[in-house]
Write a structure and sequence with these properties.
This protein has one helix and six strands; from the N terminus they run H-E-E-E-E-E-E. It is α+β, with helices and mostly antiparallel strands and 120 residues long. The longest helix has 18 residues. The N terminus is likely disordered.
């Protein structure tokens, strides 16, 4: 019985440690949005910095919402700026996730947020 209890604790411990990191433990800074190119070759650039403020190493998924002048979402994409690499506490990674969105001339504002956290 003690062996079963110890095995269960060891299996659940990594899940409990992962639960300590949440989307709010990551910060997004220095976001710059621009349209690059002209005509049909125009692409969107959404650059920023993702920072891990969690006490343990983890990765974060970021969502970009492109909105029209009235706030309606025209396009939304998600990506992992660090890929499958965990960022250690205090570490950051620069990203440009604009290539995920096709530029539209009626895109007027953008929001960038952390939507998921995972330890790889």
């Amino acid at each position: 019985m003690k062996t079963l209890l110890a095995a269960t604790v060891l299996m659940v411990a990594p899940i409990a440690a992962h639960a300590a990191c949440a989307a709010t433990d990551f910060a997004i800074q220095d976001v710059k949005v621009s349209a690059v190119g002209t005509g049909i070759a125009t692409r969107l650039s959404v650059k920023g910095k993702l920072i891990n403020n969690c006490a343990s190493a983890a990765a974060a998924q970021v969502r970009i919402d492109a909105k029209d002048g009235t706030g309606n979402v025209l396009a939304s994409k998600e990506g992992w700026p660090a890929g499958t690499t965990n960022l250690g506490p205090g570490q950051s990674v620069d990203f440009d996730l604009g290539r995920l969105l096709h530029y539209q001339s009626d895109m007027q504002s953008y929001s960038v947020s952390v939507v998921d956290v995972r330890a790889w």
